[in-house]
Protein 1
Amino acid sequence: MYKNLHQDWYRNAVFYSLDVESFYDSTGDGVGDFIGLINKLDYLAGLGITCIWLIPFYPSPDRDNGYDVMDYYNVDPQLGNLGDFAVFIEKADNLGIRIIIDLVVNHTSIQHPWFQEARKNKNSPYHDYYIWSEEPIEFDESRLMFKGEEETVWTYDKSAKKYYLHRFYKEQPDLNLGNEAVREEILKIMGFWLRLGVSGFRIDAAEIMVENYGLVGVDEKTLHDFFNEMLDFALAKKRDALLLAEVNGKPDEIKKFLGKGNKVHMLFNFYLNQYLFLSLVQNKATSLKEAIQNLPKLVHKNLFLNFLRHHDELNLKLLKKNEMKQVFDKLAPEENMRVFGFGIRRRLSPMFDGNQKILRFVYSLMFSLPGIPMIRYGEEIGMGDDLSLEGRESVRTPMQWTKNKNGGFSEADEKDLVHPVINKGQYGYQNINI
């Protein structure tokens, strides 16, 4: 139909986040795929969605929902191939929908060829793609991203005879962003996908990418300056490309990623998100109002991306302990509803007992906040969660299209599904579906 060509297209966008493997299975193997997603693009266009953020779809051992990337230049065979991806981009383009993808370059999979070469040959250039130490370097518990699942950020590798740094799972070794060759490789990855038609990137773990912990002779300014370089590179390749950074930080930390309008275009508004939920449980607007006033003044054409829920936990790290407790007590009263000591692993609707008046109010509030709105797949129908699943898998159940088998997601046997469907209770697909 059309495509908005102006460089600030994202200022009027409505974002929708989805995971290809959980959206729609066109082959009956139990795994969603790009052909299935293509078949559902008309539905998304009908909702008024103008930009889709795709969770990682690269080849991966899937230790961390695809965020342990094994090949940055391909599509996981279960989801399709690059040809399917190209068809997807073309149909989305025809419907006026832009696509942004995850740029996961804080770490790779332990099975990535770079790491396999790095661990077996210390003279290989790939050895310096990662961060090594003869002994574990002292670390604060705040560096543990998955507290309770990982107890250290250093793991010994028998082949390399050294410890490697990993801020996430031990199967996700951190890349050495102080290495110019690594930075050049990241730009190459960006160029590849921009050439294939994506409109930009959601930069995963951006706040960690600028920390020089474990690096020798690399200051944080060098790491921050790389964001300027990424922006310049992206805009040189595609003048209307978008860089969206995941930064869960307080106002002073957020400012560092804005620069003078020369780093990223948009930031996830984690700060406002957490105070929004605090205001909801307090039944008064004070906390939200103060958070809006505390946000840094945006420069140039920068914006915030507002959201209620996404594919991870509802992160409450930025709240004070007593404030966090208030939110936990109201929205996650049971220990099984919490994760990592600072997060809630529930979808939005169950947190408010499926109360449609409250849910409509909360979304009206989110859409009225300064910034751009984002919806997580399934939230438009009030999908629920499955707390019997481990960790953050509870909010990653397949899309519920119909009241038929597997919620219309797949014709496969239930045991073969990539994630279990919610098949009973208030939020079962028999009751909640498109």
Protein 2
Amino acid sequence: MTDRAPLLRAEAVSVRFPTSRGTVHAVDSATLDVGRGETVGLVGESGSGKSTLALTLMGAVQPSDGAIRFDGDRIDHLSPKALKPYRRRLQMVFQDPYASLDPRMRVERIIAEPLKAHRYGDRAAIRARVAELIDAVGLPPDAARRYPSQFSGGQRQRIAIARAIALEPDMVIADEPVSALDVSIQAQIVSLLQDIQARLGMTYLIIAHDLALVHQIADRIVVLYLGRIVEEGPADQVIARPLHPYTAGLLSATPTVDSAGRKRLVLKGDPPSPIDRPRGCPFHPRCPVAVDRCGTETPPLTALADGRKVACFYPGSVPPPLAALAAARSPAPPVVPVTEEPRS
């Protein structure tokens, strides 16, 4: 829980997609707050529901249950016309800079699109604003007259960022904004996002699968597994002492300078199908410390005394530094819960 007033709030949001094979449970009763001026990192493996939740928060996907509020106003039920004023305040940067930009349009026109859609000003004002944005994201002035194919992946992502911040929105959702880029370029884009936030006081929801990367930029980390939030807390605390075994596994998989010789927690198998989800805790088939109870009961997302949240009957039972964890089948004594997150 953040002490800032929530700018964006998802209230027990679920997203289900009917298919010929059954119902896909993409997001399961996710409750998430993002405070004004805050950066929240949403992490999880591929297929965990991160992008679906992001698109639902943007209004591109309708939730099956729950509500989404932006600055106190409920927006999940709005028509495209009624949602348009909120588009000005809530923007998105997509994962693939090669697919998110129209290759037939010059950069000037790409960045000008939101300015024209929201009647920013006359042609001269829009052109001046585009030039200002190109400079702000570190591109050369002649970028305006060039096409996306004439830029590198990192430069294309800068173009996408310029388009997202053109109207100075209150919040940007960035879906894996650096995963398609080289490591050196990733650092540049993260630094750019931080600089923009410092100048504009922007709010971020950063979606990624790399805990170490998220730790660089996020105030809080939210961990998603099979559509459910399984852990949430201040970034430093989550990295220093993950409470959920899944978070510990993600952290163990992150390369560090001292990785050599370190005994790692390797998560067994792949995430279960969102169509045929396991009974009980959805993580228990892969959990190194699961017991019989985990296969029959679903742990609620529970607030602990230190303000963190975890959906595990035995939080903290996978201790750092992740030594001999695969053999550790006996859970630690449970942490005493304070409150439970309501589920729809």
Protein 3
Amino acid sequence: MCVNLSAEQIRQSDLADNVASVLRETGLDPACLMLEISERTAQEDAEQTIDKLRELKSLGVKLALDDFGTGYCSLVYLEHSLLDFLKIDRLLVHRKREDNPEGYSKVIDAMTRMAHSLDLTMIVEGVETEEQLAKLKEIGCDMAQGYYFAKPLPSEAIESLLREDAF
């Protein structure tokens, strides 16, 4: 299960306590929870954010830096071994240009090699075609998400799909 954390939530002094409480109440294995913070949120108060990520990491949850590659995030987050996943923003998948139709793949390739060298799992957002997925697999991306797999659904439809074991 993936949950995006807002800048406001990161600033809450009791964030880790709240997450721990929800984990206890639901019985969810912490390793099954991925908490995502966006690059923009991470850059707002780096020291406080790193402290919050340490608290959350101590609970056993997985952490992801979301929308990577579109902001001005300090690479210090990657250096602290707090993250488990690096999520490349969909904009990088859709940056084909007439003068360099595969230019986007060079950036994603470099980011993937960097992520792997730091023992991070690379997730690419915004995959819409089989061609994109094939190219990302070739580059070595670990996971992908996007309309190619499923369009956003209301919670009732997701519950139905899970009950039917459609995935």
